[in-house]
Design a protein that fits this description.
The complex is a heterodimer of chains A (about 300) and B (about 260).
Chain A lengths: L15 H9 L12 H19 L11 H12 L16 H32 L1 H14 L8 H8 L3 H25 L3 H9 L4 H39 L4 H10 L3 H29 L1 H7 L4
Helix pairs in contact in A: 3-11, 4-5, 4-7, 4-9, 6-7, 7-9, 8-9, 9-10, 9-11, 10-11
Chain B lengths: L8 E13 L5 E13 L3 E5 L6 H9 L6 E6 L2 E2 L7 E4 L11 H12 L3 H14 L15 H14 L4 E5 L7 H17 L3 E5 L3 H7 L2 E6 L4 E7 L11 H20 L1
Parallel strand pairs in B: 3-8, 3-9, 6-7, 7-8
Antiparallel strand pairs in B: 1-2, 1-4, 4-5, 9-10
Classes of the chains: A mainly alpha (about 300), B alpha/beta (about 260).
The complex binds adenosine-5'-triphosphate and magnesium ion.
Chain lengths: ~300, ~260
């Protein structure tokens, strides 16, 4: 650090731009030394226990296939020509279509549901008229488990993408809405007063103070929402969509194929984790100030 | 900053009353008939023991709260809400933490749609007066507490208010920083003959800054006395006459504190 702040004339340069860079962007460049071995200890232990359980036949293979069986199922799912068993299964080679279909339903449903939740949540948190008009209805619907809407969705929309999208949009909305309302309501009165005395109109206060100030809560809501999108999507696919990860999982149950069931679960975990990371990454970049205020990283 | 003669009232408070109903349903009379006017181009200090209604009165002048009864006028017009003509410096710096120092300073001019070059010039000259020009691209949390206070003062002044309201802006600071900021503050407001209403607990700070002093007393909040501070500038806190004012104010305020 000291080395860097001495410029070529040999004098110590007080260059504010330098410390801005240090402070504003928590740089996290990759290097092998940044990998924390402790993170991998538990997954590794589980994998070893699993392998041992299969090796010593603690459980029948129908209940617990070996890790290698699961890898085989996964490979066959992705591309059957990689391992030639000869007799194709219902999932042989359908992975790309399943992944695209599931991602489409989850992502589009999440985007629509969270956009609605942010728009309506901001309106309800900001205006008492909107709160009186909308909030009681949401509060009555909210305690009802969102999964209970499945039969309704199938009867109403039939089979296919529509009931799945409906369920995801509804589930995500309910999850994100409350956080947005809370975030908007908790924006400091002093910030609003500061903006008002500087000459901001009500609308400008909403756009330039309330929404940025509520962003930490909004992102917390989005993060819960993205997990919920996958949950609702899987539920819908199990019963209402003839393709996708949920479909593969449910057929796996019907055929008692634990290997593809576990392969499907791993895929879902992976995709869920990936979408959560994307939200966290966006949050990290847009909430530098809030992270610095709390002294922690998201 | 506005036109008009010095000494003309910028703010008039006529029989302002305000009663709060606390959580225990007990009424507390924060202000019981405040009759006072604040003159244009003068620095008026509002002093008095804790709870005498200084913040309440200032918040009403800012337009953040409404009186129960009475009339509050700015240049003869009733005050109905916050307005950029009346700039406020809060006890906490209250900067927008998601905006850089510079964006904080330009917030007001941008919202009001003011001409960019004029606002930029004003903000830059104020920023260099407090010696923080090189921190313009920092975020507020990257500054020290004292720096944040200075930026907050500059933010309000950069918006060119006609009347400046300040509620104990330096109370949370250490003594040396406070002295420095009092000095900076006076430099900034005196060069434009800014109208200022300034609340403080600190008698020394009050005598240092004031052209005129409004002494309030608590339960219920009233104006007890109005004193003109007739000392040459720059003021020396060790000066004999400074000390006489100190004694005078001490004798005025102490009985009210003990009565509490
Ligand atoms: N929001 C409120 N609810 C109830 N009572 C209040 C409220 N705000 C102020 N009060 C009461 O009004 C009185 C005046 O309060 P105010 O904050 O104006 O005093 P102050 O002179 O600014 O005191 P300090 O010097 O301690 O800041 C106090 O007795 C206080 O308890
Ligand atoms: Mg106060």
């Amino acid at each position: 650090m000291l080395q860097q702040s001495v410029d070529n004339t040999g004098t110590v340069a007080a260059n504010p731009a330098d410390d801005t860079d240090d402070l504003v962007a928590p740089q996290r460049s990759f290097s092998w030394r940044t990998i924390d071995p402790l993170k991998f200890a538990l997954p590794f232990a589980i994998l070893i226990a699993w392998g041992a359980a299969c090796l010593y036949r603690w459980l029948p293979p129908i209940l617990l296939p070996s890790p290698l069986d699961v890898v085989d199922a996964l490979l066959e799912w992705i591309n059957p020509s990689w391992i030639s068993t000869g007799h194709p299964s219902y999932y042989s080679g359908t992975w790309v279509a399943d992944a695209l279909g599931s991602s489409f339903r989850a992502v589009v449903g999440f985007a629509v549901g969270s956009a609605l939740a942010v728009a309506i949540g901001v309106a309800v948190g900001w205006s008492s008229t909107m709160e009186r008009a909308i909030d009681p209805t949401v509060q009555i619907l909210r305690p009802m488990p969102r999964t209970a809407l499945l039969p309704f969705a199938i009867i109403f929309f039939g089979l296919g993408n529509l009931p799945a999208l409906f369920l995801v949009v509804y589930g995500v909305f309910m999850q994100v809405y409350l956080q947005v309302v809370i975030g908007v309501k908790l924006v400091s009165r002093d910030w609003r007063r500061a903006a008002a005395m500087l000459g901001a109109s009500d609308r400008q206060i909403l756009w330039h103070v309330v929404i940025p100030g509520a962003l930490p809560h909004i992102f917390a809501g989005l993060r819960l929402g993205v997990a919920y999108a996958w949950t609702m999507m899987i539920l819908a696919e199990m019963f209402a969509v003839p393709s996708g990860f949920g479909y593969v999982l449910w057929r796996g149950y019907e055929f008692m194929r634990m290997d593809i069931v576990i392969a499907g679960m791993i895929m879902l975990g992976f995709f869920g984790y990936l979408s959560d990371r994307i939200v966290v990454l966006i949050a990290r970049r847009s909430l530098v100030w809030a992270q610095e205020l709390s002294g922690t990283q998201l | 900053m506005g036109s008009g003669t010095i000494g003309h009232p910028a703010i008039e408070s006529r029989q302002i009353c305000k009663t709060y109903i606390g959580t225990d349903r007990r009424k507390s009379v924060a202000l019981a008939g405040i009759d006072v006017s604040f003159n244009k181009g003068q620095i008026t200090l509002l002093v008095g023991p804790s709870g005498c209604g200084k913040t309440t009165l200032l918040n009403m002048i800012a337009g953040f709260e409404k009186p129960d009864s009475g009339e509050l006028l700015e240049h003869g017009m009733p005050i109905i809400g916050p307005d950029p003509r009346r700039g406020v410096i809060f006890q906490d710096p209250n900067l927008f933490p998601w905006l850089s120092v510079w964006s904080n300073l330009m917030f007001g001019p941008k919202m009001r749609g003011e001409d960019r070059t004029a606002a930029t010039e004003r903000a830059e000259s104020l920023l260099s007066m407090v010696g923080l020009l090189k921190f313009r691209d920092h975020l507020p949390h990257q500054l020290s507490g004292g720096m944040r206070h200075r930026i907050a003062i500059v933010r309000t002044l950069a918006n060119a208010p006609e009347i400046l309201l300040a509620d104990e802006p330096f109370t949370a600071l250490d003594e040396h920083t406070r002295r420095k900021l009092q000095h900076d503050f006076y430099e900034m407001v005196s060069r434009t003959r800014q109208t200022v209403i300034f609340v403080t607990h600190n008698i020394e700070e009050a005598i240092y800054l004031a052209d005129r002093m409004v002494v309030m007393s608590p339960s219920p909040g009233r104006v007890k006395e109005i004193i003109d501070i007739d000392l040459p500038r720059p003021r020396d806190i060790l000066d004999l006459r400074f000390n006489e004012y100190r004694k005078l104010l001490f004798n005025l305020i102490t009985p009210d504190v003990i009565a509490e």
